[in-house]
Amino acid sequence: MVEMTTWAHTLRAVELVAMLMRHPCPIASASPKARLFSTRSVILRPPPVSAMTTMMNTEDHHSSAPTHLDTIFRMKRTLRSRVKKELKAMDPTIRSLEDNAIQNIVLEAPWFKSRKRLCAYISCSALREVDTSKVLSEILQNSAKDGYSQMGKKLYVPRVEDKNCHMRMLNISSMDDLIANSMNILEPAPIDANGNEREDVMLANEPVDLFLLPGLAFDKCGRRLGRGGGYYDTFLARYQQLAEERKWKQPLLIALSYSPQIMDEGAIPVTPTDVPVDALVTPSGVLPISAAALERCC
Ligand SMILES: Nc1nc2c(c(=O)[nH]1)N(C=O)[C@@H](CNc1ccc(C(=O)N[C@@H](CCC(=O)O)C(=O)O)cc1)CN2
Ligand SMILES: Nc1ncnc2c1ncn2[C@@H]1O[C@H](COP(=O)(O)OP(=O)(O)OP(=O)(O)O)[C@@H](O)[C@H]1O
After folding, report:
1. What is the largest CA-CA distance in the chain?
2. What family is this protein classified in (predicted)?
């Protein structure tokens, strides 16, 4: 209800949404450095979530924001079903070639080899996600081989806690640590085999350097379309805030994408809470997008 928010919030959010609608990809024609700047400044400074929620539900006739947001969510749903159909129709041989190409690119990349603390998703083939099994086993071998987790890599993977966009990233040391959840995605139990609480990345004393992200579609200016749960956007916003508070370097956000998932610049509709990615790994190579990626991925 509109009384619950202030006009300042409402106006700021309306302006943001209107700007996003007027300039579907504000960073499309800018230089790479300017691109990051505009992506971050437009997308990463959302109005308070309470204001956004209020706007989405409001019946206020003076504000056109709900219509805009509804339009964006409808556009997202349409794009999700289109991409899901394309992924289902993908030739399994090509998919498998792309899985290998993408994972080999990751495994050979200096930005992957040098990273010690990573968050990655456990791919689900039924959801037609880019396979991460080779990358994960490399990370886990690397951490086990050294005997000391401080010297090898450390891996955190998602665990959905509730349907309210709440996901944690918990440390695992073996694929045996995983069990299928109600969505049939493998995830860690909160307690390990020795009865100890798994380390939650939000409570760890050291920063994560790299996130390998899933998604349904990505565009060439770093916009990411997820499955609509808001889990990753919520988690990434919280993690970026934590990194800022602790004066840690922000982690690189890298999404893995099959060819049909790559869209032209500006093709993905976004709301102010969508967190852009720094780079894409595609079957034909890495596409660095942000200034951080251009610095660290090339
Ligand atoms: N491998 C993997 N793990 C992940 C995610 C992910 O996208 N991939 N998540 C990222 O958030 C979280 C789980 N969120 C999920 C959200 C939706 C669906 C899902 O199956 N969606 C169906 C549609 C369901 C519906 O519309 O009712 C689908 O996409 O077909 C799965 C996981 C955490 N773990
Ligand atoms: N930082 C956030 N805080 C609170 N709610 C959020 C945040 N980010 C996204 N949401 C909410 O989550 C819901 C789904 O958002 P959206 O459609 O952008 O998800 P998605 O990007 O497809 O999913 P995901 O982030 O899990 O990959 C929306 O209602 C959105 O407002």
Report:
1. 63
2. Belongs to the 5-formyltetrahydrofolate cyclo-ligase family.
* Interface confidence (ipTM) of the complex: 0.94
The residue whose CA is least distant from atom 18 of ligand 1 is 227
Which domain does 15 fall in, by range? 2-296
The CATH number assigned to the domain holding 7 equals 3.40.50.10420
Residue among 127, 136, 161, 218 to mutate when testing ligand 1 (max atoms within 8 A of CB) = 127
Task: Look up the pTM and report it.
Answer: 0.83
Grouping H, G, I as helix, E, B as strand and the rest as coil, residue 78 is helix
Count of the separate structural domains present in the chain: 1
Dihedral sign, Cα of residue 104, residue 110, residue 111, residue 113: positive
Instruction: Work out the burial of residue 64: count CB atoms within 10 Å of its CB; fewer than 13 is exposed, 13-18 middle, 19 or more buried.
Output: middle
Structure tokens at 246: 């602790």
Backbone angles phi, psi at 211, to 5 degrees: -115, 130
**CA 58 – CA 80 distance, rounded (Å):** 26
Phi-psi region for residue 83, left (φ > 0), alpha (ψ -120 to 50) or beta?
A: alpha
Query: Helix, strand, or coil here: 272?
Result: coil
Based on the number of CB atoms within 10 Å of its own CB, is 134 exposed (0-12), middle (13-18) or buried (19 or more)?
middle
Q: For 102-137, what is each residue's pLDDT tens digit?
A: 999 999 999 999 999 999 999 999 999 999 999 999
